[in-house]
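Extended Data, record Tetraacyldisaccharide 4'-kinase
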Amino acid sequence: MHSRFKFKAEDFEQYFLDLMAGRRRNWYDRVLTDVLFIASRFYRMAIQFRIWMYDKRVIRNHALGCLVVSIGNLSCGGTGKTPVVEVFARTLSSQGRRVAILSRGYRSKKRSLGYKLMHMFQSQKIEIPPKVVSDGKDLLLESDYAGDEPYMLASNLRDVAVLVDKDRVKSGIYAVDRYQTDVIILDDGFQYLMLKPHINIVLVDSTDPFGNGHVLPRGILREPIKNIRRADYIFLTKSDGSHKLRHLKNFLRRHTRRAEIIECTHRPQYLVELFSGGRREPLEKLKGAKVAALSAIAAPASFEGFLEQLGAELVLRDHYADHHRYTQQEIIDFVNQAKAAGAEFIVTTEKDAVRIPKLERCDVPIYYLRIQIDILSGQESFDQCISRICFM
């Protein structure tokens, strides 16, 4: 029953994504598109009113007594935010700062009622503490309770605490008290106005910056494009280093003169075998190989494009809704399909890898593609940003 409900919810989500992209052409789709457009006008007004309330101090935001760096988007997903959060956390930690990442843990499992009751009986505090994915030394939660991105960050970062809670004021106070944190990275924090950031970093996908330009639910934007003026730094992700981005930069400059613009690319590093204790393979393994691609991310075409650019022949590809949590049967079925299609191995994303259940037997090896950020232009601005954080 739960699995059937999950698929219906994902199909519903995909239907609305198709509507936003204009891929639905029936008359009732056009009617619904008009309804979504009207709803997006009201949503836009509500967003702007909320921001005005914070600007005028009608609603007060909180300070934590440490430096807060917000990294977020204007759009819903697909900008490649997690590798950017990782590179900031790793760089700041290497500079001697005590770093904690605060995430809301999108689609992570909630704690059981038993845990909450036990905490209330064992502690004098009624408030439930945040979920600690990593204390900087040990990985303390599985991916289903942590959420995909927090688990991935905690797995890749040492000496960085990773905490999950919808109330990031609470988790920030906890990080400062428990771990003596002096820099907090607010993951997906551009719309989280309850914490006032000292530095606002906004990511823009250079391959599809703003979708159709509409806010939710008619488009993919969480707030109007003009609000990018709140940014101190703008990262153009998935850049290819070409001069085509000149128009995008000029467009952004019309909305903000003060923000530094940094171009970066998500560059594949190596393959990691999923069920073999993390054994690495060079990217040359993909050249001329018959590969099956599996993903459940916001931009699967980008991932599949990487594989093809590296010389793989994709004999099978399948993608689910973003953040889909695979069942064992789904993976077994895909392995069998990959085998039948003649695939030498399966490749998935690092974010998907944390959601794939372990198989006792796997007839086709499964790898994930490790991605890291490279700065293409604006390295001085990036270094300045790091220095600004370190010496604030």
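Summary. Residues 2-55 form one domain.
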